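User
New here, help please:
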Amino acid sequence: MTKRLVIFIFLICILPALIYAAVTDYLILEDIGTYKLFTGITGRVFSGPPSKYSQTATGGILDAAGHFSENDQSYEASYTTIGSKWPFIKVEVTQHAGSDSDKWLLHEVEKSFRTYYGIPGDPYAMRVIDGNTIIVYGSAGWAYRWVSGNKVIQISYYDSQMEKPEPLEVVSAYLAKHPSTLTPITSADLRTDTNKTKWIKDEMDRRLWLCDKWFYQLQLQKAELNKVLRESVDSMNVFLDYREKYYGISATDEKKLLGEYLQANDGTAIKNKLAEYKAWWSENKDKAISL
Protein backbone atom coordinates (compact mmCIF):
# COMPACT_ATOMS: atom_id res chain seq x y z
CA MET A 1 0.00 0.00 0.00
CA THR A 2 2.84 2.36 0.88
CA LYS A 3 4.52 1.72 -2.48
CA ARG A 4 1.30 2.52 -4.33
CA LEU A 5 0.93 5.72 -2.33
CA VAL A 6 4.45 6.83 -3.26
CA ILE A 7 3.75 6.15 -6.95
CA PHE A 8 0.48 8.07 -6.69
CA ILE A 9 2.19 11.07 -5.10
CA PHE A 10 4.90 10.97 -7.78
CA LEU A 11 2.33 10.94 -10.60
CA ILE A 12 0.18 13.68 -9.09
CA CYS A 13 2.75 16.03 -7.63
CA ILE A 14 6.25 15.43 -8.91
CA LEU A 15 5.82 14.32 -12.54
CA PRO A 16 3.93 17.48 -13.64
CA ALA A 17 6.69 19.59 -12.09
CA LEU A 18 9.34 17.66 -14.01
CA ILE A 19 7.41 18.07 -17.28
CA TYR A 20 6.97 21.79 -16.61
CA ALA A 21 10.69 22.14 -15.91
CA ALA A 22 11.47 20.43 -19.22
CA VAL A 23 9.13 22.78 -21.10
CA THR A 24 10.70 25.85 -19.53
CA ASP A 25 14.02 24.70 -20.95
CA TYR A 26 12.50 25.72 -24.29
CA LEU A 27 9.72 28.25 -23.71
CA ILE A 28 9.41 31.39 -21.60
CA LEU A 29 6.16 30.77 -19.73
CA GLU A 30 5.72 34.26 -18.36
CA ASP A 31 5.15 37.77 -19.63
CA ILE A 32 7.98 39.36 -21.63
CA GLY A 33 8.14 43.11 -21.23
CA THR A 34 4.88 44.53 -22.58
CA TYR A 35 3.82 41.18 -24.06
CA LYS A 36 1.59 38.88 -22.02
CA LEU A 37 1.75 35.10 -22.17
CA PHE A 38 -1.44 33.83 -23.83
CA THR A 39 -3.21 31.08 -21.89
CA GLY A 40 -6.38 30.67 -23.92
CA ILE A 41 -9.78 32.28 -23.86
CA THR A 42 -12.11 30.86 -21.23
CA GLY A 43 -15.72 30.23 -22.14
CA ARG A 44 -15.04 29.43 -25.78
CA VAL A 45 -15.68 25.82 -26.73
CA PHE A 46 -13.10 25.67 -29.52
CA SER A 47 -10.27 27.01 -27.39
CA GLY A 48 -10.18 24.11 -24.94
CA PRO A 49 -8.96 24.53 -21.38
CA PRO A 50 -6.54 27.38 -20.67
CA SER A 51 -2.97 26.34 -21.39
CA LYS A 52 0.35 28.15 -21.43
CA TYR A 53 1.85 26.04 -24.18
CA SER A 54 1.44 23.09 -26.53
CA GLN A 55 3.83 20.22 -27.17
CA THR A 56 3.90 17.83 -30.12
CA ALA A 57 6.19 15.05 -31.30
CA THR A 58 6.97 16.67 -34.66
CA GLY A 59 9.80 18.36 -36.52
CA GLY A 60 8.03 21.71 -36.18
CA ILE A 61 8.44 24.20 -39.00
CA LEU A 62 10.91 21.91 -40.75
CA ASP A 63 8.24 19.28 -41.44
CA ALA A 64 7.19 21.38 -44.43
CA ALA A 65 10.75 21.08 -45.78
CA GLY A 66 10.55 17.29 -45.73
CA HIS A 67 12.76 17.04 -42.63
CA PHE A 68 13.12 13.44 -41.46
CA SER A 69 11.86 13.73 -37.91
CA GLU A 70 13.24 11.23 -35.40
CA ASN A 71 12.06 11.75 -31.82
CA ASP A 72 11.86 15.52 -32.33
CA GLN A 73 9.77 17.58 -29.91
CA SER A 74 8.15 20.89 -30.77
CA TYR A 75 6.93 23.43 -28.20
CA GLU A 76 4.68 26.41 -28.89
CA ALA A 77 3.57 29.45 -26.91
CA SER A 78 1.82 32.68 -27.83
CA TYR A 79 1.88 36.23 -26.50
CA THR A 80 -0.54 39.13 -26.74
CA THR A 81 -0.20 42.86 -26.47
CA ILE A 82 -1.67 44.52 -23.40
CA GLY A 83 -5.46 44.78 -23.64
CA SER A 84 -5.74 42.23 -26.46
CA LYS A 85 -7.58 38.92 -26.07
CA TRP A 86 -6.11 37.24 -29.12
CA PRO A 87 -2.58 35.91 -29.66
CA PHE A 88 -0.35 38.35 -31.49
CA ILE A 89 3.02 36.58 -31.46
CA LYS A 90 3.61 32.87 -31.92
CA VAL A 91 6.80 31.18 -30.74
CA GLU A 92 7.86 27.69 -31.75
CA VAL A 93 10.95 25.95 -30.39
CA THR A 94 11.77 22.52 -31.77
CA GLN A 95 14.33 20.25 -30.18
CA HIS A 96 15.75 17.99 -32.86
CA ALA A 97 17.03 14.67 -31.65
CA GLY A 98 20.62 14.96 -32.82
CA SER A 99 20.23 12.12 -35.32
CA ASP A 100 21.96 12.01 -38.69
CA SER A 101 19.03 13.88 -40.23
CA ASP A 102 20.07 16.96 -38.23
CA LYS A 103 22.99 17.49 -40.60
CA TRP A 104 20.47 19.21 -42.87
CA LEU A 105 19.10 21.66 -40.25
CA LEU A 106 21.05 24.67 -41.55
CA HIS A 107 19.86 23.88 -45.06
CA GLU A 108 16.24 23.13 -44.19
CA VAL A 109 15.77 26.12 -41.90
CA GLU A 110 15.77 28.49 -44.86
CA LYS A 111 13.93 26.33 -47.40
CA SER A 112 10.52 27.97 -46.96
CA PHE A 113 12.10 31.39 -47.54
CA ARG A 114 13.40 30.35 -50.96
CA THR A 115 11.52 29.67 -54.19
CA TYR A 116 10.77 26.10 -55.23
CA TYR A 117 14.01 26.12 -57.22
CA GLY A 118 16.14 27.39 -54.34
CA ILE A 119 16.45 31.11 -55.10
CA PRO A 120 16.13 33.43 -52.05
CA GLY A 121 12.78 35.24 -52.01
CA ASP A 122 12.74 39.05 -52.02
CA PRO A 123 11.48 39.35 -48.39
CA TYR A 124 14.20 36.95 -47.16
CA ALA A 125 17.06 38.68 -45.34
CA MET A 126 19.65 38.25 -42.62
CA ARG A 127 19.78 40.44 -39.52
CA VAL A 128 21.96 40.78 -36.47
CA ILE A 129 20.08 41.24 -33.19
CA ASP A 130 21.97 41.43 -29.90
CA GLY A 131 25.04 40.09 -31.67
CA ASN A 132 23.15 37.07 -33.07
CA THR A 133 22.78 36.35 -36.77
CA ILE A 134 19.21 35.33 -37.58
CA ILE A 135 16.98 34.82 -40.61
CA VAL A 136 14.06 37.20 -41.11
CA TYR A 137 11.21 37.21 -43.60
CA GLY A 138 9.05 40.32 -43.93
CA SER A 139 5.73 39.83 -45.68
CA ALA A 140 2.37 40.59 -44.00
CA GLY A 141 4.25 40.57 -40.71
CA TRP A 142 7.64 39.25 -39.72
CA ALA A 143 9.10 35.82 -39.09
CA TYR A 144 12.36 35.53 -37.16
CA ARG A 145 14.12 32.19 -37.39
CA TRP A 146 17.43 30.74 -36.26
CA VAL A 147 19.24 27.56 -35.24
CA SER A 148 20.69 27.10 -31.77
CA GLY A 149 22.64 23.84 -31.71
CA ASN A 150 20.03 21.19 -32.54
CA LYS A 151 17.13 23.52 -31.80
CA VAL A 152 15.20 25.58 -34.35
CA ILE A 153 13.41 28.69 -33.11
CA GLN A 154 10.79 30.71 -34.95
CA ILE A 155 8.94 33.80 -33.76
CA SER A 156 6.24 35.14 -36.05
CA TYR A 157 3.30 37.50 -36.16
CA TYR A 158 0.74 38.62 -38.74
CA ASP A 159 0.44 42.25 -39.79
CA SER A 160 -1.04 42.72 -43.26
CA GLN A 161 -0.26 46.46 -43.30
CA MET A 162 3.24 46.12 -41.77
CA GLU A 163 2.37 48.89 -39.31
CA LYS A 164 2.69 47.19 -35.93
CA PRO A 165 5.95 47.54 -33.99
CA GLU A 166 8.24 44.54 -34.21
CA PRO A 167 8.16 42.38 -31.05
CA LEU A 168 11.89 42.74 -30.49
CA GLU A 169 11.51 42.28 -26.72
CA VAL A 170 10.30 38.73 -27.38
CA VAL A 171 12.98 38.07 -30.00
CA SER A 172 15.73 39.30 -27.65
CA ALA A 173 14.40 37.23 -24.76
CA TYR A 174 14.46 34.05 -26.82
CA LEU A 175 17.88 34.85 -28.24
CA ALA A 176 19.17 35.17 -24.68
CA LYS A 177 17.66 31.77 -23.90
CA HIS A 178 18.69 30.14 -27.19
CA PRO A 179 21.65 32.00 -28.76
CA SER A 180 21.92 31.66 -32.51
CA THR A 181 24.62 29.35 -33.84
CA LEU A 182 24.13 30.49 -37.43
CA THR A 183 27.33 31.51 -39.18
CA PRO A 184 27.44 35.28 -39.77
CA ILE A 185 26.22 36.00 -43.29
CA THR A 186 24.70 39.07 -44.95
CA SER A 187 21.63 39.42 -47.14
CA ALA A 188 23.96 40.18 -50.05
CA ASP A 189 25.88 36.95 -49.41
CA LEU A 190 22.61 34.99 -49.76
CA ARG A 191 22.19 36.23 -53.29
CA THR A 192 25.63 35.43 -54.66
CA ASP A 193 25.86 32.76 -57.35
CA THR A 194 28.12 30.76 -55.04
CA ASN A 195 25.51 30.64 -52.28
CA LYS A 196 22.66 29.84 -54.67
CA THR A 197 24.64 27.06 -56.36
CA LYS A 198 25.63 25.47 -53.07
CA TRP A 199 22.06 25.49 -51.74
CA ILE A 200 20.66 24.04 -54.99
CA LYS A 201 23.19 21.21 -55.08
CA ASP A 202 22.69 20.53 -51.36
CA GLU A 203 18.96 20.22 -52.00
CA MET A 204 19.56 17.66 -54.75
CA ASP A 205 21.90 15.79 -52.40
CA ARG A 206 19.37 15.92 -49.59
CA ARG A 207 16.54 14.60 -51.74
CA LEU A 208 18.51 11.47 -52.65
CA TRP A 209 19.60 11.12 -49.02
CA LEU A 210 15.96 11.24 -47.92
CA CYS A 211 15.13 8.39 -50.32
CA ASP A 212 17.89 6.25 -48.81
CA LYS A 213 16.68 7.18 -45.34
CA TRP A 214 13.12 6.08 -46.08
CA PHE A 215 14.17 2.78 -47.61
CA TYR A 216 16.35 2.14 -44.56
CA GLN A 217 13.30 2.69 -42.34
CA LEU A 218 11.51 0.04 -44.41
CA GLN A 219 14.42 -2.32 -43.85
CA LEU A 220 14.16 -1.71 -40.09
CA GLN A 221 10.38 -2.25 -40.30
CA LYS A 222 9.79 1.23 -38.89
CA ALA A 223 7.70 2.43 -41.83
CA GLU A 224 5.03 1.01 -44.13
CA LEU A 225 5.86 0.32 -47.78
CA ASN A 226 3.22 2.75 -49.11
CA LYS A 227 4.61 5.66 -47.09
CA VAL A 228 8.22 4.85 -48.00
CA LEU A 229 7.43 4.74 -51.72
CA ARG A 230 5.32 7.89 -51.60
CA GLU A 231 7.95 9.89 -49.68
CA SER A 232 10.75 8.59 -51.91
CA VAL A 233 8.94 9.41 -55.15
CA ASP A 234 8.13 12.90 -53.84
CA SER A 235 11.82 13.54 -53.21
CA MET A 236 12.86 12.01 -56.53
CA ASN A 237 10.42 14.30 -58.32
CA VAL A 238 12.05 17.33 -56.70
CA PHE A 239 15.47 16.00 -57.71
CA LEU A 240 14.26 15.55 -61.29
CA ASP A 241 12.77 19.06 -61.39
CA TYR A 242 16.07 20.54 -60.24
CA ARG A 243 18.00 18.39 -62.73
CA GLU A 244 15.74 19.61 -65.54
CA LYS A 245 16.09 23.27 -64.61
CA TYR A 246 19.80 23.35 -63.85
CA TYR A 247 21.19 20.53 -66.00
CA GLY A 248 18.75 20.66 -68.93
CA ILE A 249 17.51 17.06 -68.72
CA SER A 250 13.75 16.68 -69.21
CA ALA A 251 11.90 15.34 -66.18
CA THR A 252 8.57 14.55 -67.86
CA ASP A 253 9.10 10.92 -68.86
CA GLU A 254 10.95 10.03 -65.66
CA LYS A 255 8.24 11.51 -63.43
CA LYS A 256 5.55 9.70 -65.41
CA LEU A 257 7.42 6.42 -64.99
CA LEU A 258 7.84 6.96 -61.25
CA GLY A 259 4.11 7.66 -61.00
CA GLU A 260 3.34 4.36 -62.68
CA TYR A 261 5.71 2.49 -60.37
CA LEU A 262 4.12 4.17 -57.35
CA GLN A 263 0.63 3.27 -58.48
CA ALA A 264 1.74 -0.34 -58.92
CA ASN A 265 3.43 -0.29 -55.50
CA ASP A 266 6.60 -1.47 -57.24
CA GLY A 267 9.30 -0.81 -54.65
CA THR A 268 11.98 -2.67 -56.61
CA ALA A 269 11.54 -0.51 -59.70
CA ILE A 270 11.56 2.69 -57.63
CA LYS A 271 14.68 1.62 -55.78
CA ASN A 272 16.38 0.82 -59.11
CA LYS A 273 15.53 4.31 -60.34
CA LEU A 274 17.02 5.75 -57.17
CA ALA A 275 20.27 3.89 -57.83
CA GLU A 276 20.26 5.27 -61.39
CA TYR A 277 19.78 8.86 -60.18
CA LYS A 278 22.48 8.49 -57.54
CA ALA A 279 24.96 7.21 -60.14
CA TRP A 280 24.13 10.15 -62.43
CA TRP A 281 24.49 12.61 -59.57
CA SER A 282 27.86 11.20 -58.56
CA GLU A 283 29.14 11.86 -62.07
CA ASN A 284 27.60 15.30 -62.54
CA LYS A 285 27.28 17.05 -59.17
CA ASP A 286 30.56 18.92 -59.54
CA LYS A 287 29.66 20.34 -62.95
CA ALA A 288 28.77 24.01 -63.30
CA ILE A 289 25.09 24.94 -63.48
CA SER A 290 23.35 27.84 -65.14
CA LEU A 291 21.34 30.05 -62.80
